Amino acid sequence: MRSGETDGFTLVTAKYKRGRAVHKTPAPQPTTSTTHTTSLYAATSTESTTSTTTVLSKKNRRTKPIHQHQDVTQSANTAAIDSLISKINSKRYTIRTSGYLTSLQPHLDILLEHNPDEIICYGLGSPLASPVSQWQLALILELNHGLGTLPILAFDPATTSQDHIALGKLNVSLISINEEAQRAVSCRTLFYMPHCEQFLYENLVRANWSKERIPQLIILGNRFARYREAQGLEEFKKRSVFLDLFLECLDTVVELPGESGLRVRHCPYAFTDTCLQRVDRNKLVSIDFGNEKDEDEGENQPELGFEKNDSSKTKTC
Ligand SMILES: C[S@@+](CC[C@H](N)C(=O)[O-])C[C@H]1O[C@@H](n2cnc3c(N)ncnc32)[C@H](O)[C@@H]1O
After folding, report:
1. Residue of 197, 219, 273 with the most ligand 1 atoms within 8 Å of its CB, for mutation
2. 195 C-alpha vs ligand 1 centroid, how far in Å?
3. Separation of CA 66 and ligand 1 centre (Å)
4. Residues with CB under 6 A from ligand 1
5. CA of 244 to the centre of ligand 1 (A)
6. Which of 76, 105, 108, 126 has its CA 20 to 30 A from that of 116?
7. What percent of the chain has a predicted confidence (pLDDT) above 90?
8. Which residue puts its alpha carbon closest to atom 13 of ligand 1?
9. If DSSP states are collapsed to H, E and C, what string results for the chain?
């Protein structure tokens, strides 16, 4: 790059300004290159008045006004969001055409039989930042298509404002508060929680631990029994007493098919150890829900590993 040029924009100095009045007293030269590189998008009024060195657009030979800076940022945002949506659509297409969707038919059948009214997604991650999240989002959109397009609501603290716009365009609504997965339901709900941490599953089951609510849940997430196997019964019960109760009444466990079925060059590892889980209503009969309370604040309740979010509330569909 020639001296005097930054990123395609020319720093026009007195040397290059023929026939123009030049300040007699040399004005202070820019102390850092930042002064001018930032001016690429917006030449501030300070720069234009205090420096003889003016940043000019190569094409128009005019300073760039601030609104053009905003335009550039805006169009970069729009491009990133459009690109994200097309990546998700392309993954949906792969799921549909590779045969993977066909292998999901048993899962879809169980879901259709469960007949959820809505889908809650926790812990998808940031689709903008992660191809794994894109795959996971693509999968739930495809499953939802098979379910007749239910309302989908999502929350992950890792999402960005660009993720939010993209999710909105894909008809996924945002949950505006961090519920810590403690949403107590009053309608049949599919919870999609791919690769979430154990405490989130525990919170969810705990918040819904009643005869009425727990059968309304169907969870597509990590296999709970695997935590128990890995941690040993005693440690598992210490950490996740409600997951242990859930496992006692477990009915359905159907793991997602292997990702080789996607027929993509690099396995995304987006659906590993992910299965549909729900309780068997008949097994609930023998369960003592004696300590069950709507607000779950009873003395007999085991303590959560973190402070309970006051904002958790019952959702009515
Ligand atoms: C192990 S990562 C999994 C991310 C992604 N699903 C994947 O498989 O790569 C767990 C995710 O849970 C999210 N998470 C943590 N606390 C959460 C909360 N209270 N509600 C929803 N998601 C949460 C994290 O931000 C993170 O994206």
Report:
1. 197
2. 7
3. 37
4. 122-125, 130, 132-133, 136, 155-158, 178, 180-181, 194-197, 200
5. 22
6. 126
7. 63
8. 123
9. CCCCEECCEEEECHHHCCCCCCCCCCCCCCCCCHHHHHCCCCCCHHHHHHCCCEEECCCCCCCCCHHHHHHHHHHHHHHHHHHHHHHHHHHHHHHHHCCHHHHCHHHHHHHHHHCCCEEEEECCCCCCCCHHHHHHHHHHHHHHHHHCCCCEEEECCCCCHHHHHHHHHCCEEECCCCCCCCCEECCCEEEEECCCCHHHHHHHHHHCCCCCCHHHEEEEEECHHHHHHHHCHHHHHHHCHHHHHHHHCEEEEEECCCHHHHCCCCCCCCCCCEEEEEECHHHHCCCCCCCCCCCCCCCCCCCCCCCCCCCCCEECC
Structural domains in the chain?
A: 5-64 (no CATH), 84-315 (3.40.50)
- Kindly report the protein residue whose alpha carbon is nearest to atom 15 of ligand 1: 123
In this predicted structure, the answer to whether residue 240 has a pLDDT above a threshold of 60 is: yes
